[in-house]
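From the shared-data thread, chain only:
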Amino acid sequence: MDKSTLRRKVLADLKTLSPQVRSQWSSSISRALTKYTNQARITCLGVFDPLPSEPDIRPFVTELLRKNTSTVIAYPRCHKNHLHFYEVTSDTQLIPVPHRKFREPDPTRCPRLDPTKFDLILVPGLAFSPRSHARLGRGGGFYDRLLSSSNVTATTIGVCFDCQRYDTVPVAAHDQFVSMIISESTK
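Structure, as tokens:
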């Protein structure tokens, strides 16, 4: 299956998920992320504000911010086809992006961070392969450009629902792989 066909298939499958199932699965993913970050002792974490079709990791991030741990939380902001990460200490520092369905950090209120200092980056995507750790994004290449930097050494976790896991995912030379995958069935 080529990338375009797989993208269409995954998006169609995601549309069939009820809000209740999506919420239940997202809660399981948040618990798995909490368990992983507690065991790994993360000091700097790159996260994302989910699109409506993606696992809702906001409760996981909100809990980290509420605990006021020493973990630095950074959200990406798209700028000239690149992702720049900014430290966020409160949900109020995220602003809606016109013509998009997610929020980004307000660069006038949040300090920009160097992603080479991150321990962990959570990576969204449409499809992931548990075998190869290949990732199929939405086609913009933002995370591929970020992760292709030889200076970024963070562990990367692909965050998805089980229905987004495929034995094989088509890849091109520029595609970047994730270190591991967390979904609702992750223990």
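The radius of gyration is 16 Å.
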